[in-house]
Structure formats: structure tokens, C-alpha cells
Design brief:
This protein has helices at about 35-45, 60-70, 80-85, 95-105, 140-150, 170-195, 205-210, 225-235, and strands at about 5-10, 15-20, 25-30, 50-55, 75, 110-115, 120-125, 130-140, 200, 220. It has about 240 residues and is α/β, with parallel strands linked by helices. The chain has a domain at about 110-225: ATPase, nucleotide binding domain (Nucleotidyltransferase, domain 5, 2-Layer Sandwich). Strand 7 and strand 8 form a beta hairpin. Helix 4 (about 95-105) crosses helix 8. The chain starts with a strand and ends with a helix.
Length: about 240
């Protein structure tokens, strides 16, 4: 394999990575564990990337960063300075910023409402010129189930189900319907606020909720990786 760029996104629960030739993503890798650095080094064992770009909610030590720097021609860690260059508020997490950058690229001259359905549910708004208009953060689907179990002790820990009733008839169906219906009401409320926008779904639960939507939406499962690939292309051109 010829040298390409290595795109890495470390979120709240897992690492996702992909080799990228420009904007073309190759096989996607997923890792969930504590040995994040070792996993990344396993990806670069046979092939050294031109640009390695890292978006992470975790802070790597100086020693770990140095190891990564030795594995590539150029290491880019998404930080506030990079976000400002792309006219994205510095308070946003790197993954949200990458989703915004990718949406600008994919849906030029169209307003976007971007839903990232993962550990958290984030909603971000772009106007037709790609300007960021703000966004919201709430609990993701599985986080809501866990919160009910943790903070309301008698309630069992449940998860998503394919068949959801509108009204629960026992404790399990009440919890499942309450969580899923609540998220659907949120999504539909945001969509109705900006009906002119394209609704974009990404994140681990994107397909699950997309199947329940009556309105037309776009599902882009690797939206974050695409945004990071765009940034990597910019830096690759500077060599």
C-alpha cells in the first residue's frame, strides 16, 4: 500500500480510524479499550502515513505524541488554532467541528441541521453559506438508558429495540418507548424549526433513528472522518 493519510477520531467510547487517499476513505477500523496508542501504532507498523490527523476527547502525553510524530511525515492534532482557521468556534469538540467541515463540503449552498447520535446527542446548525449558527448538546440514546438505571434504582438497564410502542404497557416498554420517543420528538422538533435545512445524521445510532424518520434525511456514517480527511488534504498539499 502506498503512503496515504491516516485519519483518527477518538470519542467518548471508542476510536475510529481509516486510511484516506485524499477524500476517499478506505477500510474503517474501530477499537474500544484503554490501549489506544498501541492500537494506532499497530496501524502504522507496515505503512507510514504522510499526514496523521488526530481528533481526540482524550489528552495524550508528550511521550505518546512524540511516538505518533515518529510514525508519520506530519502529525496534526486538532486544537483551537485549527478550528479557528476553519471558522468553527473553539469551544466545539473536534468531532463536532469535523462534522461541520464535512457538511460544508458535501452540501454546498445548503443550510444543514447536523445530528450526531452517539454517547451524546449533538445538534449543529449551518446557514446556506456554511456559517455556524450554534448548536445544542444532550444525552445520547444509550446514555439515557444508563442514567435511568443509575439514578432511578428500581428501573432495569435496557437498550434499543426494533419494535417500539407509542405507549408503554409495562415497565420495560414504558422505558424503551419513553427514551426512543423522546429522542424522536427532539429530532422532529429541531427539523421543524428549520424545514429548509438538509437534515444530516451521523454517529453510532444514526441508522436506527433514520429508519424512524418520516422526512427525508441524509445518513453519513463517517461524517467526522470525512471532515478530518479534508483537513488532512489541506496539510498534505503544504509539503
Amino acid at each position: 500500500m502506498e503512503a496515504a493519510n491516516l485519519i483518527i477520531d477518538i470519542g467518548n467510547t471508542a476510536l475510529k480510524a481509516a486510511w484516506a487517499d485524499g477524500m476517499t476513505l478506505g477500510k474503517t477500523f474501530r477499537y474500544q479499550g484503554e490501549r489506544m496508542l498501541d492500537f494506532i501504532l499497530s496501524l502504522t507498523e507496515k505503512t507510514k502515513p504522510n499526514v496523521m490527523i488526530l481528533s481526540s476527547v482524550r489528552v495524550f502525553s508528550k511521550q505518546a505524541v512524540e511516538k505518533l510524530r515518529n510514525e508519520c511525515t506530519r502529525l496534526i492534532i486538532i486544537d483551537e488554532n485549527i478550528l479557528e482557521r476553519y471558522d468553527v468556534p473553539s469551544y466545539l469538540s473536534p468531532d463536532r467541528a469535523a462534522s461541520i467541515i464535512a457538511s460544508r463540503y458535501l452540501f454546498k449552498k445548503r443550510g444543514c441541521t447536523i445530528f450526531d447520535l452517539g454517547t451524546t446527542l449533538t445538534v449543529d446548525f449551518l446557514d446556506p453559506e456554511g456559517r455556524y449558527e450554534g448548536g445544542n448538546v444532550s444525552l445520547g440514546c444509550r446514555t439515557r438508558f444508563k442514567a435511568l438505571n443509575r439514578y432511578a434504582k428500581p428501573l432495569p438497564l435496557l437498550g434499543v429495540a426494533e419494535d417500539i410502542s407509542q405507549k408503554g404497557t409495562d415497565i420495560a416498554s414504558s422505558i424503551t418507548s419513553g427514551v426512543i420517543s423522546g429522542i424522536m420528538f427532539e429530532i422532529e422538533g429541531y427539523v421543524s424549526q428549520h424545514p429548509e435545512n438538509i437534515a444530516v445524521f451521523t454517529g453510532g445510532d444514526a441508522i436506527y433513528f433514520a429508519k424512524r424518520m418520516k422526512n427525508s434525511i441524509f445518513v453519513v456514517c463517517n461524517l467526522v472522518l470525512m471532515g478530518l480527511a479534508l483537513i488532512a488534504v489541506e496539510y498534505d498539499k503544504k509539503d
